[in-house]
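Bug report (template v2)

What were you trying to do?
Predict the complex of my protein with magnesium ion.

What happened?
Run completed; filing so the output is reviewed.

Input:
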Amino acid sequence: MDIVKELLGGSRLALSRTITAIENEHENASSIMRELYHHTGHAFVLGITGPPGAGKSTMTDKLARAYRNMGKTVGIIAVDPTSPFSGGAILGDRIRMNGLTLDEGVFIRSMGTRGSLGGLSHKTADAVKALDAFGKDIIFVETVGVGQSEVDIVKAADTTIVVLIPGMGDDIQAIKAGILEIGDVFAINKADHDGADKLQAELNMMLDLDGLKFDWRPPIQKVVANQGEGIDDLVKLIEKHYAYISKTGKLAQRRHDRTKTELLELLNSSIGTYVTKHIVDTGRINKCLQDIEAHRNDPYTIVHQLMDELLK
Amino acid sequence: MMEKRIRVLVAKPGLDGHDRGAKVVARALRDAGFEVIYTGLRQTPEQIAEAALQEDVNVIAMSILSGAHMHLFPRVVELVREKGMKDVLVVGGGVIPESDIPALKKAGIAEVFTPGTKTSDIVEFIKAHVK
Ligand code: B12
Ligand SMILES: Nc1nc2c(ncn2[C@@H]2O[C@H](COP(=O)(O)OP(=O)(O)OP(=O)(O)O)[C@@H](O)[C@H]2O)c(=O)[nH]1
Ligand SMILES: [Mg+2]
């Protein structure tokens, strides 16, 4: 039977197999996405990022329960790093979410970064679309916040929560650059540890200096995720941000920008594949290389000629 | 460009708290290039089967040292097949008497690995039998 029909009909196995096809860049992935696309756009996508061990998974678990209690269905994509040495990974986020496994209104999927440069962001975005088409009301994307690719993934989100913890010392200075800009809401987790107030004060100062955000000054919430403290207040802030971006048209703008980025990425990668097929696989590139090395021609002219020919 | 990767769920069913073996196996599989989804202690067969479905794993690897394997291992196989995952390879390990192994294999556990097993043997077995 048709996997798309099954997914839309509510088969969790079909949803799961679809995400595998996306991850493995299976040859039928793009035809699946083509059909699913028209069923997307309904879910609210929440990004959760922050340093390793900050409590992102524990918080996701608690937030997911809160949304379940509000009657919403939940999808979760949890991303962990792939080892650059073996290509393998231990994906451990589920350990904190075991209590959600048997709730039929929740679907959790772990993904490894698989060392792809930027590639993960489109795979994650497509996995989010699969969950969206499946009918999930809210989709969480958990990533480790230590680099550019994570920032990219979070661009797939409507609202992003940055989780910080006390005791990071001067690290907050280092984190500042990438992470301050992407946070719509900040959660100071492990507020049961010393230093939460100090971190909050420092963060407040930085956010006040950072005049970039205009009319939305990212709020800060103290949380003790493993005990569920502060979760209800965090949900209120998330809802407030959602209301704000909906009302001001910023949500539509974010989604517009996202569609544009995705379209360009897709186009670029298709052109790349096309070029490989016509220039590399046919061996034509060898003739070009010979010409360049013998100084009969130069790379700039050749690219110009090939572009004219290929894009005619 | 197809990028396939073997995905393995490493799980500890039942109330057994011995997790060293499971962790050793999880790390060995990661180092062999597999994606390991580790779900930690005290999983029911229902949780293991559902996690296997959501993660679309190729292999379920369960560890038991408490003696409850005769009930828990076959139950997971049963549930996984009910969910329509026909191809998933199920293996087990831990403190398991030789005399129990034939019955476990009959119940659909592809192989059972007892104390002293070299992790490279586990990796080889999975590579040879995964679908
Ligand atoms: C260390 C240990 C403990 C530690 C556990 C620490 C931990 N976090 O894991 C502690 C001290 C906590 C402990 C406690 C208990 N233990 Co104890 N423990 C052991 C001991 C000595 C070694 C186990 C071990 O870690 N081995 C090292 C690892 C790497 O080896 P492994 O687990 O066997 O794994 C290998 C293979 O089996 C295989 N494998 C294992 N799992 C898997 C899974 C897959 C998928 C695959 C492919 C392969 C595989 O590959 C691994 C690599 O070779 C064993 C005796 C023994 N020789 O096995 C008793 C033993 C397991 N314990 C036993 C008992 C009874 C207990 C207690 C009930 C004691 C008590 N009365 O309090 C408690 C219960 C704890 C609990 N909550 O469940 C009994 C179990 C008896 C039984 N099965 O009928 C044993 C067998 C001792 C004995 N001879 O009586 N224990
Ligand atoms: N004291 C304290 N511990 C917490 C709190 N929240 C989570 N933890 C613990 O912190 C550890 C890490 O939690 P996770 O939720 O796995 O953190 P994470 O950010 O998802 O970790 P990675 O995905 O590995 O980056 C676990 O042992 C949690 O139980 C908290 O508020 N206070
Ligand atoms: Mg995590």
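What did the reviewer find?
Chain A has twelve helices and eight strands. The beta strands of chain A are 44-49, 74-80, 89-91, 106-112, 138-142, 159-164, 185-188, 220-222.
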